[in-house]
């Protein structure tokens, strides 16, 4: 008898990013779907990795992350958010932010717990919750603005609610948390046992004079939070899959119990390189203005088409409506654009557990200008 696996994710298939990127390759389409830059990362950072390997830094580093890197992150957090976190007790380097999110859920959740998830939501959230025997309680963000619906959120909290998951700047919409959102989170979590999981991988990709409101800068929220970040999104090296989690000591202690038996540690030479590169504050402080230029350039090009932009204040992405072009479902529209016009996008309906059709697609504008120009040239044939 050949053994079979009883799936822990029976409803899960291949991720939409893999599906659309494979389709893009098959049809030689310009891939504005998956969120990665097609321009070179900073050569100085690459050289620092090579130097670290040549200098012999090729063995295990500390389980919690290279101490000098954690110290550099702690200094950055204190400077940006006024929070004097402990490099030793509150920061752990991880193989990517997705790993950090999963580890936080695993450390915190028990079977039967509920987690509030705002949709559209990045596709790793709900599987991570379900794999830990918990239930994702999904709440739709307001269509168009993608603001948190406070009344729906308050009504969704039950004795089983264990945590609230937030993401700002938001993927896929580019929406950002405002002060009224922070006040609401403070109100609904005060004098409760609720945790907050905050996905802040796009912290520096923020536009139009907006400020990133990190959970780290609000002590009454941070005391109950796991906050995750990504170096890949900051330094245009998404394939490095290197990030970190920040949490109060008691929470981080439980996080590290899981981490030590899973990844244990992260690629060493990259950690040495990042520790040195973080000294150049301009590299991350100027990132928002550089990416805003790309967003604006793409938006100006897209003004020639029939697609209508929705506001994007951060991230790599902008959502566009095709409501005045077609009545097709979002997945069908995305497939047709790839096959017939050679431009790949992501249907926003894929960011819902049960697809919601608003006739919108996600475009990644973190590309070379020539890539964006070629994509819009093809879209003009629609």
TrEMBL record:
All copies of domain Aminotransferase class I/classII large, residue ranges: 29-379
Molecular-function annotations in GO: transaminase activity
Pfam families (UniProt xref): Aminotran_1_2
Cofactor names: pyridoxal 5'-phosphate
Keywords: Aminotransferase, Pyridoxal phosphate, Transferase
CDD domains the record matches: AAT_like (cd00609)
PANTHER family (UniProt xref): FI04487P
Name listed for the protein in its UniProt record: Methionine aminotransferase
Organism from which the protein derives: Ferruginibacter yonginensis
Lineage: Bacteria, Pseudomonadati, Bacteroidota, Chitinophagia, Chitinophagales
């Amino acid at each position: 008898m050949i053994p079979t696996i009883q799936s822990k994710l029976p409803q899960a298939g291949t991720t939409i990013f893999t599906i659309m990127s494979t389709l893009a390759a098959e049809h030689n389409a310009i891939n504005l779907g998956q969120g990665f830059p097609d321009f070179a990362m900073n050569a100085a950072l690459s050289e620092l990795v090579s130097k670290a390997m040549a200098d012999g830094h090729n063995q295990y580093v500390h389980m919690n992350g290279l101490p000098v890197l954690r110290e550099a992150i702690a200094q950055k957090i204190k400077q940006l958010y006024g929070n004097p976190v402990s490099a030793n007790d509150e920061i752990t380097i991880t193989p990517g932010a997705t790993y950090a999110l999963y580890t936080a859920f695993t450390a915190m959740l028990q079977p039967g717990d509920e987690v509030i998830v705002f949709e559209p939501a990045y596709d790793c959230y709900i599987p991570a919750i379900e794999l830990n025997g918990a239930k994702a309680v999904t709440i739709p963000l307001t269509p168009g603005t993608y603001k948190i619906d406070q009344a729906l959120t308050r009504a969704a909290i039950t004795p089983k609610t264990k945590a609230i998951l937030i993401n700002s700047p938001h993927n896929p919409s580019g929406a950002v948390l405002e002060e009224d959102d922070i006040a609401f989170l403070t109100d609904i979590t005060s004098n409760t046992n609720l945790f907050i999981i905050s996905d802040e991988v796009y912290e520096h990709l923020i536009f139009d004079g907006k400020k990133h409101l990190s959970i780290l800068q609000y002590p009454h929220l941070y005391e109950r939070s796991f906050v995750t970040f990504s170096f890949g999104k900051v330094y245009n090296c998404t394939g490095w899959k290197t990030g970190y989690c920040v949490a109060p000591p008691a929470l981080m202690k439980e996080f590290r119990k899981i981490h030590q038996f899973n990844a244990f540690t992260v690629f060493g030479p990259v950690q040495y390189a990042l520790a040195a590169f973080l000294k150049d504050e301009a590299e991350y402080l100027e990132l928002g203005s550089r990416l805003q230029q790309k967003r604006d350039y793409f938006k100006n090009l897209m003004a020639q088409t029939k697609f209508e932009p929705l506001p994007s204040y951060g991230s790599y992405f902008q959502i566009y409506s095709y409501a005045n072009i077609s009545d097709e479902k979002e997945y069908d529209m995305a497939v047709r654009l790839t096959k017939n016009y050679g431009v790949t996008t992501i249907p926003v309906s894929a960011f819902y557990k049960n697809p919601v059709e608003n006739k919108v697609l996600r475009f990644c504008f973190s590309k070379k200008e020539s890539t964006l120009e070629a994509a819009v040239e093809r879209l003009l044939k629609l």
